[in-house]
Amino acid sequence: MITAVELGLIYAIMALGVYLTFRILDFPDLTVDGSFTTGAAVAAVSIVNGVNPWLATLLAFLAGMAAGAVTGLLHTKGKIDGLLAGILTMIALYSINLRIMGKANTPLLGEETLISPMRAAGILGSWTSIGIFFLVSLVLVAAVVWFLHTEMGMAMRATGDNQEMIRSFGVSTDNQKILGLALSNGLVGASGAVVAQYQGFADVGMGIGVILIGLASVIVGQAILTQRYIWLAALAVVIGAVLYRLVIQLALVAGLEVNDMKLISAVLVVIALLLPKWKGFQKIVKSFKRTPAPVTDSKEEVRTNA
């Protein structure tokens, strides 16, 4: 279970990226499946070639940003449907990732990674490592929340809420979409880099279905916690990522095979989407709140502030 929580906190980095596009920009971005592997590939190849793990992870973040920016340019400047733009970038990244690694798999055994000090100290797989990963997640949540409360972040939130309104204030919605997609996939790429260092290898197929994990984390977390406040909605994403990994772990312990993971993910997302519509569930959630209030999307803040 501890390993599941650790992985959940690492994947929470990716889920925060999905939150930026799915909830803030209201953009169905499928680039994630490709940019996750891109981050892992860039980090793995960099580390194998002697680059410092921290710098390698930063390079993975920048590579993810580049992938997201391409999707944004295809959509805004090329006038290609957002869903299709993401699919095109994702498909292209498969070949690019193979080019980066030169093969389908790049091992990191014996290499110095971000996880190596924890493994050497014997704290990996303990509550201490969970505390470290949780602290990193909180720092990233704070950074995302801070950004979304800046002038640029408010413009991005308004772009996802009402493009016509924000255009009337002279804001370029195209630039906001490109920036949002770049930041989102930058986080996804960084998550891929950390996952590769955690498991000890980067594989060209490791990003398949990652968008489903991200969506499950966002939807499950926000089905439990309110979306009324930005900070709570972002924190819910982290909680959702951990709960997702725990459910997967419990399903495997119950006897399901690894090949069933995608099916489990799909069922979990369906349940998370249907559960908030069940009146009994709504009453349970409200009973845990001191002051019952209608659950609204985080974008309501944007409408009010605008």
Automatic annotation (TrEMBL):
Residues making up the signal peptide according to the UniProt record: none
Topological relation to the membrane, as annotated: Multi-pass membrane protein
Domain of life: Bacteria
Keyword Secreted tagged: no
CDD domains according to UniProt: TM_PBP1_branched-chain-AA_like
A single cellular component GO annotation: plasma membrane
Residue spans crossing the bilayer: 7-25, 82-100, 120-148, 178-198, 204-225, 232-255, 261-278
A Pfam family reported for this protein in Swiss-Prot or TrEMBL: BPD_transp_2
Record GO terms (molecular function): transmembrane transporter activity
Subcellular location: Cell membrane
InterPro entries: ABC_transp_permease
PANTHER family for the chain: ABC TRANSPORTER PERMEASE PROTEIN YPHD-RELATED-RELATED, BRANCHED-CHAIN AMINO ACID TRANSPORT SYSTEM, PERMEASE PROTEIN
Protein name from the UniProt record: ABC transporter permease
Organism of this sequence: Glutamicibacter soli
